[in-house]
Amino acid sequence: MDEKMENGRVVNVDLKKEIEKSFLAYSMSVIVQRALPDVRDGLKPVHRRILYTMYENNLSPSKPYRKCADTVGSVLGRYHPHGDASVYDALVRLAQDFSMRYMLVDGHGNFGSVDGDPPAAYRYTESRMSRLAVEMLQDIDKETVDFIPNYDDRLKEPTALPSHFPNLLVNGSTGIAVGMATNIPPHNMNEVIDGMCCLIDNPDAGLDELMEHIKGPDFPTGGIVMGRSGIRAAYATGRGRITVRARAEIEEEKNGRFNIIVTELPYQVNKARLIENIADLVKEKRIEGISNIDDHSDRDGMMIVITVKRDASPQIVLNQLYSFTQMQTTFGVIMLAIVNGEPKTLTLRDMLQHYIDFQVDVVTRRTQFDLKKAEERAHILEGLKIAVDNIDEVIAIIRSSPDRATAKIRLCERFGLDDPQAQAIVQMTLGALTNTDRLKLEEELAAIEAKVADFRDILANKSRLMGIIKDEAQEIKKKYGDERRTEIATISGEVDIEDLIPREECVLTMTNFGYVKRQPTDTYHIQRRGGKGISGMSRREEDAAAEMFVIGSHDYVMFFTNLGRVYRLKCYEIPEGSRTSKGMNIANLLPLSPDEKVSSLIRVPEFDETSYLVMVTKNGVIKRTELSAYNTARKGGVIALSLDEGDELAWVRLTDGETQLVVGTKKGMAIRFDERDVRPMGRTARGVKALTLREGDCVVGMSTIRADALLLTVSETGYGRLSPLSDYRVQSRGGKGLLNYHVEKYGDVAAIKVVDLSDDVILISSDGILIRIPADSIRVCARPSKGVRVMRVTEGNRVVTLARTAHEEDEEADELPEDDGEPELTEEELAADRLADEEPDEPVMDDDPGEEEPETDEETEE
Questions:
Q1: What topology is assigned to 247-326 in CATH?
Q2: Each residue's pLDDT tens digit, 200-240
Q3: 343: preceding bond cis by omega (within 30 degrees)
Q4: What are phi and psi of 96, to 5 degrees?
Q5: CATH 3.30.1360.40 boundaries in the chain
Q6: Which of 88, 102, 124, 567 is catalytic?
Q7: Is 124 known to be catalytic?
Q8: pLDDT per residue as tens digits for the range 656-670
Q9: Contact in structure between 662 and 711 (CB atoms under 8 Å)
């Protein structure tokens, strides 16, 4: 038991109960009056009081800035009897572009930085309301919200601001109360208002329908949200964990070294502290591979340059930065807000519905206020009209009355007026008696009566009321909406998210220096054979496109490297690029070692038990392994095959186990054999000999045989031909093969591909030019003839690769190729081209070297 004084006498109390009672009162005060935002306007009391004080002080965007000390003092004296530091800190946050997605205070001076620098003292800084804050306070003078007495009963303060946009979602909120906390992320204005309008149009809209509009949080500092499962959980339950990454790209310098460029950080991460933390981790050798860190941030944006050591993998270093530093953080969403004076955890739909209900109340009360004012004015105008119609008698009554009070009484008795009407009549000036003013009076009365009818219709018609709410929100969106800053990245394993990604065919392109991108297949229009093509990418001067193929957006892409390793991604995980963009460096997607390059890409719809992967190395070693052996999600990749010293993995194909293969070489040889000649081996096996190569020769392509298809051979000089597959008889694996092309006369072979006449062929030259032509426009010739010109390559350049895709009907197919600025060919050059195209085919050699017996293989399997 303890004692306390009450009305001058001592009262015995139970200490436990007294503490419980007092702490509960304190807790509720902190929860309701300090730490948590209101679901209606999304503001805590201190923020609401700051904005309302600025409104009272007429600190609108059109007025000059005023010292923050003046505003802080006014807030303390009128509404918020707490510390000045707490008020100023709250005001500063409303003016920081890295804290607020849409700032509510327009600050002038030093308001801090993303490096954690503190703001200047409030005697130095100035502020006023932002344009958006005016929208929050609009109509507050029309009895749209309730007012309560301030702390000393001198003044009245609003319980919420009218807020004509959903500020709680748009700007979010963070607060720690007693026993509970809130952490609501900011969102994009356009998306939130679209979601609100969706719920107005369809009150039964579910989460999936709302998320078509509201994709996820949109932080002021940008960044990348990894996956949508956390967002969906937060929106569905009010709680969720969202992983946010810094925006970092790996860029290669001309000297071959890599830099990690960081341009955006996760929300609320201190940049200076992050750099210091990275430096400490490097010093402690917890992160290895970083040689230097520079902060090149300026007024135009953030840029942290992390230099990677020459012998380190930039992707591994970046992954370590994500793991050990705040370059990757977790945003714990707790959507807690005050609803009708009580703290509640809300779903996304709940928040939007509470805001819509609040706006229904605001617009209803505003309309009732305007109706009341209009009716009062109409009432006065009706009295004035009576006075003007009987002006002589009115003047006589007023002149004969001893005072105004008597005149008012006599007017009321004579004309049946009430006191406000009589008051307006006795205050009427002589100028109002002219004919012009009489007409104005009648026009004003007609207009007021029309307004009264309109206001009554709004109050009686809920659909009109909802339409007004939507229209006002759309107007806010039009004035203040902007593009999303935070990217939401898709990650593998989120099945429900995959369903939202459209299934479409894409073209994957990869350059020699490892820049990869995906594009819709309709990016490249058909041109006639021999055209110059269109520019396919912007790239480093000496870079060239190396690989291209068509793939479904939901298929797996397997990346085979020259060192015999394999990695896999979903196609949609590869960033989409425009036709002329260079794409993203593969080092941003895969943890490649410094001397490792992707040499082959392959499409895998699914990992079944009946398919095989057939691989051929640059030196002609072939290996066949079951596809299921590579079904692993290891980020670090797995071994695809063991390589001999000096050899590289060159080509990979997906087969059904009973396919015939054709392998072509740079020096014009080709061999066709059954894949069953290569027995299945383990994932790490070396393989066996596919064909015997001459000195200086290497493999340039491997394709699977299909019925009624043709073999396309394209030379580096831009000539190509289709040949019947019957020209290539089936041989035993390991021989020298048949002569496929006269490289001494027409240039080395760039690539071979089995195609159908119904296909289109996409060719890529070393200077990055692409052309798409129908396969049936290429002449069918017996091997080893030259063929026809399929692509014109400029001096010093060559054809490097080709891909086949489904035929596309295009009106431009018969048009001339686009003019790329090159000079037109002379008549002599055109004649030479025609002569070359009409050159007769040479007979097939009878003494094909492929008749030789295959050499003995040295098969090894680890």
A1: Gyrase A; domain 2 (3.30.1360)
A2: 999 988 898 999 999 999 999 999 999 888 999 999 999 99
A3: no
A4: -95, 125
A5: 247-326
A6: 124
A7: yes
A8: 888 899 999 999 999
A9: yes
